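Example 3.2
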Amino acid sequence: MRNPNKHLPLALHSSMSIVVVLFVLANCAYFVALSPEIVASSNTVALDFGRVVIGKFGAVVFSTLVAISCFGALSNSFYTSKSIYLGCVM
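Structure, written as tokens:
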């Protein structure tokens, strides 16, 4: 990186903005495809969305995407926190 003092904050701010916009768009898509009653009563809105939009295969796709997202969050906390995991001292 040629100029980290300039490019690193730019990358951080733009990536956070992209994530927020994608999150809002995903929630808008949920409310367009599903009724508010289904969204309010469901614990798995993404799976219901996939089932309505794509079918049974969509539920599998979205459950896989949720699992990958959870694995990414777990991996992030594993590498950024100072604690004991699986009996190993970090």
